[in-house]
Amino acid sequence: MASEISKKKLEHDRLAKQNLLKVTESLYDQFKEGIIPNIVMPSRTKKNIEYNDESDVWVYGGRESERSSKTVKGAFQLLKTTHTIDFLLSNHLSQNRGSTLRELYYISENWDVAKFKEQPESDRLIEDLEIITNLQREYFHMRPEEDGATMFGPIRIHEETKRGDRIIHCQEDIGESGYQIPFNVENINFVDHDANFIIAIETGGMYARLIENGFDEKYNAILVHLKGQPARSTRRLIKRMNEELGIPVAVFTDGDPWSYRIYASIAYGAIKSAHLSEFMATPAAKFIGVQPTDIVEYELSTDKLTDKDISALRSELSDPRFETDYWNEQINLQLEIQKKAEQQAFAGKGLDFVTDIYLPDRLSDIGII
Amino acid sequence: MKNLRKKTKNLKKQYLIFDHEVNHMSTLIAEELAKNQKAISVAEFFEKNRQILGFDSGPRSLITTIKEAVDNSLDSCEDAQILPNILVHVQRISKDHVIVTIEDNGPGIVKEQIPKVFAKLLYGSRFHSLKQSRGQQGIGISAAVLYSQLTSGQPTKIISKIGAHSPAHYYELMINTRTNEPEIFKDEEIDWDRNQGTRIELEMEASYVKGRRQSVYEYLKSTAVVTPHARITLIEPDGNEIVFERATDKLPKQAQEILPHPHGIELGTLMRMLRYTERKKLGAFLRYSFSKIGLFTAEEICKASGLDFDIDPHDIDRNQAKKILEAFKKVKIMSPPTDCLSPIGEELIYKGLQKEFDVDFIATATRSPSVYSGNPFVIEVGIAYGGRLQKDDRVDISRFANRVPLLYQQGACVTTRAIESIRWKQYGLNQPGGGLPIGPVILLVHVASTNVPFTSESKDAIAEIPAIQNETELALKEIARKLNRFLKRQGTLKKRREKEIIITKVLPKMAEKLANTLEKPVPDISPVVAKIMGNVHIDSSADKHETGEINVRIKINNHGSKSFEFDIHQLLPYEIKRASPEPKVVSVGDQYDYIWPVKINPGNSKALTYTLELIDENDENKLGNIIVEGMEQELVTGAKCVKGV
Description:
The complex is a heterodimer of chains A (369) and B (645).
Chain A: H1 2-32, E1 38-42, E2 49-52, E3 57-60, E4 64-68, H2 72-93, E5 99-100, H3 101-107, H4 119-133, E6 142-143, E7 150-152, E8 155-161, E9 164-169, E10 179-180, E11 188-193, E12 197-201, H5 204-212, H6 215-219, E13 221-225, H7 232-245, E14 249-252, H8 257-267, H9 277-280, E15 286-289, H10 292-297, E16 303-304, H11 307-317, H12 325-337, E17 339-340, H13 353-365
Parallel strand pairs in A: 5-6, 12-13, 12-14, 14-15
Antiparallel strand pairs in A: 1-4, 2-3, 7-10, 7-13, 8-9, 8-11, 16-17
Helix pairs in contact in A: 1-2, 3-4, 11-12
Chain B: H1 2-12, H2 20-36, H3 42-48, H4 50-53, H5 58-79, E1 85-94, E2 97-104, H6 114-119, H7 140-152, E3 156-161, E4 168-176, E5 181-190, E6 197-205, H8 216-226, E7 231-235, E8 241-244, H9 267-276, H10 282-289, H11 295-305, H12 318-330, H13 346-356, E9 361-366, E10 370-372, E11 375-385, E12 396-401, E13 404-406, H14 414-420, E14 441-449, H15 466-518, H16 526-533, E15 536-544, E16 549-558, E17 564-572, E18 577-580, E19 584-588, E20 591-600, E21 605-613, E22 626-629, E23 636-637, E24 640-642
Parallel strand pairs in B: 1-7, 12-14, 15-23, 22-24
Antiparallel strand pairs in B: 1-2, 2-6, 3-4, 3-6, 4-5, 7-8, 9-11, 10-11, 11-14, 12-13, 15-16, 16-21, 17-20, 17-22, 18-21, 19-20
């Protein structure tokens, strides 16, 4: 088992080296051939997002943009790219080390004119490299800052850590807060599980409520805490459990436009990282709520929609990812009632209401139980 | 007596003209006004008209007061041909009360006139004078005095001195709001260590604001731009002293007084002129009361209006006056004279902008005089671009009427309309959604006229007269074209600079890094450099054969956008073989100069080849020095250039 992951890791490193070197070689050859150095890649704009029928997720379309050293901006971008690739090859891949996105930004301090002006610039460049090489940043040993979220449920996993292999049962071998999802979930293998479904939960409060109420035991559910907009590793792990183990996924969030976007990024993919949609999105994921119809039906205590909420809802009406009858109806209803509700609003009906009544009802509605 | 009058005339012109006719008329009108206004006191009149007189808020009252005093000072200095030194001092005495002092080095005011000039409303010299001047109504400074006494209860303190050997007179004055006559609280002779000048000190409810367009600072700065012959010193309430230094010792050309032109006259004015004229015959009245009416034109007018040439003008009734007015329109009359105008001039506006703003480019234009409804006017404009001006904001507009800055109601002004109606995009400025363009720009517009047509009494905005708008647009387009040329030049330079950054800073480092990563030799970047610069690239390579022969190939690529003709020289100590094409050969000492004339079109490439046999291995490194004759070095990469012999 351990060697399997190691093998995979070696293979990943080999791929990363190969693809990064390809970029460098192509730039080098352009100099040799007297071509002004340039890199062509899909353009990362909203207009260039299209639905992929095969994978059911949103990916980049055929529009291309060029980074060319004809312009000062493009030239500096390419110079920074060459420095970054060199750093990834000689420091990360050949020495089996890694750094965070923020560290990369600081490392560039020593690159003279090639240093990054701000961290978003280096973050973008790593995303560019992901697109150019068709590999995720984890292949380059780049880590995000944010620690992954946590999960809790009847599944036993095998994780290869820098300090040796671990086999962990996500109910029995961990404390109350759950299993900490590592930044690179490719280092995880699934051993066995008793799970009937996965519930991805937006807020820590609701996650803790479900654990306290023993929802995971009663329904054999894996609870995943999203911590707001979910990190890549969280989304990737959910997708792997769904695809590799065939466990259905349901998403439980607050009832406001921002939470619908959390669901969309899990189920359909995000615009900013559409190159990763096929890798991270779980098109089979279902939305539990809180739905605007729940607000009406359960008479939940609510807040008024702010101007920002309203314009977010309006823009979702024109977002191709929300172009379904279901979302149309829900969003229009919310615009009509001008209210939003948090997950915790169910506490107003008693602490057990959400686990005894709401979730079983909704889960059977969407066909999970 | 006559001499004395002449002498004092210049000195005292500031507030009074010793002209019997005008004086007589003004007294009569003042009497008429007084009759009509018996019921309301001056104070009431003022209270009701605060905003049209410019005293509606704390900050504005202070600006108006300073504006009126500075206008008077500048007018009087110019009349007396003195280079103005003006001091404006604002002291804060409580939260919303200030003492403001304005002092000038002007000709001073004769003792008897001081109370009336400052403490009697509608007393002034310029009300009926047809020449370009700043103040016109005779309300300004006395309104400030009235405002001061209404808000502080204090009299206004005046010092004035008309010459080094005259005494300085000190007055403390208020306006009797019932009679509109000066009330004198103090009248003394004092020692004043100035040769001449006037100083006025007012206490009032007002506030000193900073950092916006409508402020004392901005008003004085604008004034300084169009009055580059003045030195203006401002002492702010916190003691901070700002000097707007003069940029020239040249005084503006004196504006001449003119008679009214028939085209600008209204019925009421004509009737008043008819009634009060000293002429006994209509013909003479027409000839001597208006400009551009000679004997012939006067006869024509009489004929056209059906009135007798010799009729007494005092007997003419309203209907007959109307006929004269109609005749003015029918008969051809020459345009009014324009020497009554005193434009600032392109050069001085340039200097003014240059001294007050740190910018990269300035252009100015003064149009030739033009006429609207019989009133001559001149449009002058200036543009300042770049420097530390805000890049992303709408342009700043500096509006002036007869050299007085207009701070309020920009949107209602014909000059703003003119700016907005120009399509700035074609001159290199953005203008999203129409309106004012965006960019690091100050646009200055000066309207000089004997009668600036303001939209209201507060004199904030100039009315939309088509002739004025048209002239303004033409003037603006003139300087906009100059700006456009400047911006294009800048654009080319910027592109060139950017390319230089790419080829000197970025590409060498990139090539080095790539080679480093791949562990390969650093690639030659000159082909890429030539392409980026749009240059002619010359590259020579040599293949050494086993036989000891060397095949040399000189490749020429034209990456530029036009075709070039030049000579390629290769200086060698050997004879070459199998050259293609065949070069000219000139022997130079013990060397041969091989010359290939080359003509190459844009985007094309050519190759020159030859073979040579080496005698000595060490000579191999003597190869390669290719020299291009007849090209600028900056257009060539890969070879040295020499100027044509």
